[in-house]
Amino acid sequence: MKGSESLLATATAAGVQVCFANPGTTEIPLVEAFDQVPGVRAVLALSEGVVTGAADGYARMTGVPAMTLLHLGPGFANGIANLHNARRARTPMINIIGEHASWHQPADAPLASDIESLARPVSGWVGRTTSPASAAGEFAEAYRATLGQRLPATLIAAADHMWSQGGEPAAVPAASARPAVDDQQIAAIAKLLAGGSGRTALLLGGHALSAEGIRTAARIVATTGGEVLVERSPARIERGPGIPAVRSLPYFPEDVLRSLEGFSHLVLVGARTPVAFFGYRGMPSFPLPNDLKVRTLADTDQDAVEALRALADATGSAAAEVPSTERPQAQAPAGPLTAASIAAAIVLTQPEHAIVVNEGISSGAAYPAIAAAAPPHTELTNTGGAIGMGMPAATGAAVACPDRAVINFQADGSAAYTVQALWTQAREGLDVTTVICANSRYGILEAELRRAGVAEPGAAAASMTSLAEPSMDWTAMASGFGVPSSRAATGEELLAALRKAHAEPGPHLIEAVL
Amino acid sequence: MKGSESLLATATAAGVQVCFANPGTTEIPLVEAFDQVPGVRAVLALSEGVVTGAADGYARMTGVPAMTLLHLGPGFANGIANLHNARRARTPMINIIGEHASWHQPADAPLASDIESLARPVSGWVGRTTSPASAAGEFAEAYRATLGQRLPATLIAAADHMWSQGGEPAAVPAASARPAVDDQQIAAIAKLLAGGSGRTALLLGGHALSAEGIRTAARIVATTGGEVLVERSPARIERGPGIPAVRSLPYFPEDVLRSLEGFSHLVLVGARTPVAFFGYRGMPSFPLPNDLKVRTLADTDQDAVEALRALADATGSAAAEVPSTERPQAQAPAGPLTAASIAAAIVLTQPEHAIVVNEGISSGAAYPAIAAAAPPHTELTNTGGAIGMGMPAATGAAVACPDRAVINFQADGSAAYTVQALWTQAREGLDVTTVICANSRYGILEAELRRAGVAEPGAAAASMTSLAEPSMDWTAMASGFGVPSSRAATGEELLAALRKAHAEPGPHLIEAVL
Q: Where is the Thiamine pyrophosphate enzyme N-terminal TPP-binding domain (chains A, B) (predicted)?
């Protein structure tokens, strides 16, 4: 069989089911092979930022890596921003970059570039095919790396290695379990919680934010005292009536400092030490009160949920009841919209087991603030700060979970980066409801200008934060990409639009005018 | 003054007039400085592919580098594809990437990444600011590099170096002239042309495609025999009644081979040796007949126009009349559209001294085929093969030349990459007429599948080349970004739409349905 066919056969055997793609000429052998070796569903996107963001959203929901198919260095480069987010989310995926035929590479043809240099900053593993016969093995190596590292892996596949005969499927590596946390480490944290050494917060991040992780952590603090906190920008967090509501760390470092006041210890459970998103004058990089000691139960690689189970045993809280937290009520919004009323309208109308992809940016904090009032759901957020992840990740999540509604709570400025995702949503008939928080500005930049002491920006600075001239017509844009749409300027209109969108199949876009 | 102000003062003194920008928090000090140090016009774009493509189009038209302002690694990464094209076009520009404050960099905040690794493949020079006091000098170094190398230069500017006092404007380096070609080399080529060693083609590329370069080359071959050829995908080529029409090298290598049949020598004049865009089975990387000898008059760095002048002197053709070539007539198209009839409609309606940005891809060859019939104009093409350059480059060309009409002959698949450029066209009131060749498919991929022997693609392969389900509504998309639009399905409708677009100020989009 051809190298391309051996690669796809190996991918299928490994359980890879989806390839998000924007192919070019060097990927033609793989495009052809999709028909010869069925098993991997190819999903086309109009630009590579959609491809990689969709693969991120897909794997966050399934735990199974998707493939991406990208065209040489420049095509890959268009996907880097969302690969950056995937790297921060610890998302497995396998990027296949079609490269010039091996014998054509020295010719420095127009599309040639240093692909490795582009790929390394966002890949835990970068490799190249070396022959048709070895290509499947090299794919298997990428697969092993992405599962082991939980980072994107990138395989640069020369066109001739793909189109030539001589390929042989390779053995599929077994999925590697997360490394376990050492018993002594668990005992040490158990001792810390038992001893009267002050108030402790468990900071949950990564896969510790599963339903079981949150419940187990809540049991522990119900027994030992302290509080469960959530990292800012989780890759994925579960919420619902059976899962205690927990506080998230805020965005600005002075607010993080305030959140951590009164604690003596911060125990990291699959989370990193809180770091300021940006450096601000007079603020530290790590916004921690001076007397706060940071300890680690499980680092971001380790099996944090198993460590929590063991810690629950060690602290005698395994059999404790999961504390119930008061469930807030969302109020039906009326009149002109605010970020909070948009979030309330979403919460009041969202179907059970929805997936909420939150790239609200300056409006984004409104959703987690009221999310405990919502039916059981999963929230995905922007982990790396590279904007334009929301619409692609919603697309990938909908491919992953066709039986769940996907709601994309989406800032307008960020939406404008990867609006092309709407086309894939229309094409695949995905049940994504996009709610554009249309404030017609880069609200976060306005806030940052104020923080920098610029109370009244001059004309040039003001023009860099305004999206108002002209303001974008999101309903027209949705029509352009084949997605039904509506506009809502009041709470009542938004509730009606959301109910309609959820009642009908396929994608919808609602422009919520702020 | 602040570091940011010293940088802008130095840019202004150097003659930099425009900064295409998509700033974030780390660029706030420069956003602020646009008001404090007037002189550089900041032009906002909705995504970074538009920013870098616009800077490319701008500098191709002015010869003066624009600045770009980009947000950390991921923001820069979104601009890489069009920087790849700019690198292949030998376009000077200075990318300023706002980086985390110097003391915050070790904290590995969410947006941190290896910016150098991303920047090197598309930059001739990459540097970092080291202090507020030295930032302007580091900018001057980037400026010297971009003018000297005629490649993008990238300066990574730490936020604290920009916001802190202590900046001092730096001396502005003088523009460096292109290195001259050696007299002996000119004499050798003159001897070649004089001696009876067979037919010679002068292959013009880069800045040799100025009006003077083409005229001088045409004078030479009128005297010595031979032919003037044009490289495929020139960064910029001038055409008009006083400029002889010259043949372009075709796209596929077998066609290049045929074009070069019958020549004994190929003399490179600011052009590279012809290289196959992709490697194909049974085709060489360099599609040159076996008996063709390649010689160089001027390489891509050297002063090719001056070398042509000297060659004209040496061959006694300096005073020769510029040969007049027959000017074809474009026929007014009627009935259903084809790529050729779209090109004819453009040619028949285009204002004098228009700038035609050609990213027609599978329709693209139709324009140069009839362009000799058009009034005097400049054509810009996609030099690097990274698609999505057309709309951004048209935007930048219109900023560069407000008194010239810009026409963007644009494939639909490529347009979908950077359609966000329309918003900047609307915002700045730019006189760009975009003609979308809406064939609702990746036509070039269909052609490549056929070349690969796939006469009847299977369902999966066919779905990777089709943009038809749903087909995009380009008029709706234009409305979404604030650009007036129309749709034309026949030659008559297209002529009317083009006349209307040219008669009215500001941008227009015409969906030409194929």
A: 1-106
Do B3-163 and B183-314 fold alike per CATH? Answer: yes
Phi and psi torsions of B256, nearest 5°: -65, -45
**Chain B residues within an 8 Å CB radius of A481:** 470, 472, 477
Out of 1.10.8.640, 3.30.930.10, 3.40.718.10, 3.40.50.970, select the CATH number for domain B3-163. 3.40.50.970
How would you class A501 by CB atoms within 10 Å of its CB: exposed for 0-12, middle for 13-18, buried for 19 or more? Answer: buried
Alpha carbon distance A493, A510 (integer Å): 10
CB contact B468 to A (< 8 Å): no
Q: Closest Cα partner for B338 from B489, B508, B511, B498?
A: B489
Kindly determine whether residue B81 and residue A75, on different chains, have CB atoms separated by under 8 Å: yes
The answer to whether the beta carbons of residues B390 and B399 sit under 8 Å apart is: no
Mutate which of B78, B422, B424 to test chain A, going by most A C-beta atoms within 10 A? B78
CA gap B84, B71 in Å, rounded: 18
What does residue A165 show for φ and ψ, rounded to 5 degrees? -70, 165
User: How far A442 CA sits from the closest chain B CA (Å)?
Assistant: 9
ipTM of this predicted structure: 0.98
Q: Does B385 contact A111 at a Cβ distance shorter than 8 Å?
A: yes
Residue with tokens 């009160």: A289
CATH number listed for the domain at residues B183-314: 3.40.50.1220
DSSP B224: H
Check CB contact under 8 Å for B110 and A233. Answer: yes
Query: Could you tell me the two tokens for B489?
Result: 């399905």
CB B115 within 8 A of CB B86: no
Write down the pLDDT at residue B293: 97
- With contact defined as beta carbons under 8 Å apart, do A157 and A96 qualify? yes
A12 touches chain B (CB under 8 A): no
CA distance A78 to A329: 42
Contact B461 A31 (CB under 8 A): yes
Q: Which residues, numbered 162 to 181 in chain B, qualify as contacts with chain A under a Cβ-Cβ cut-off of 8 Å? A: 163
- The Cα–Cα gap between A74 and A65 comes to 23
Place of tokens 């009520």: A329
Domain A339-513 belongs in CATH node 3.40.50.970: yes
Quote the distance between the C-alpha of residue A206 and its chain's center.
11
Residues 372-411 (A) with a CB less than 8 A from some CB of B:
383-386, 388
- Other C-beta atoms lying within 10 Å of the C-beta of residue A184: 8
Cβ-defined contact of A32 to B452 (cutoff 8 Å): yes
Where along chain A do its domains lie?
3-163, 183-314, 339-513
Residue B357 pLDDT exceeds 80: yes
**DSSP label at residue A371:** G
Cis peptide before A470 (omega within 30 of 0): yes
Note down pLDDT in tens along chain A; length 514 residues: 999 999 999 999 999 999 999 999 999 999 999 999 999 999 999 999 999 999 999 999 999 999 999 999 999 999 999 999 999 999 999 999 999 999 999 999 999 999 999 999 999 999 999 999 999 999 999 999 999 999 999 999 999 999 999 999 999 988 788 999 999 999 999 999 998 778 999 999 999 999 999 999 999 999 999 999 999 999 999 999 889 999 999 999 999 999 999 999 999 999 999 999 999 999 999 999 999 999 999 999 999 999 999 999 999 999 999 888 888 899 999 999 999 999 999 999 999 999 999 999 989 999 999 999 999 999 999 999 999 999 999 999 999 999 999 999 999 999 999 999 999 999 999 999 999 999 999 999 999 999 999 989 999 999 999 999 999 999 999 999 999 999 999 999 999 999 999 999 999 999 999 9
Interface of B with A in 181-240 (CB under 8 A): 233
Contact B416 A46 (CB under 8 A): yes
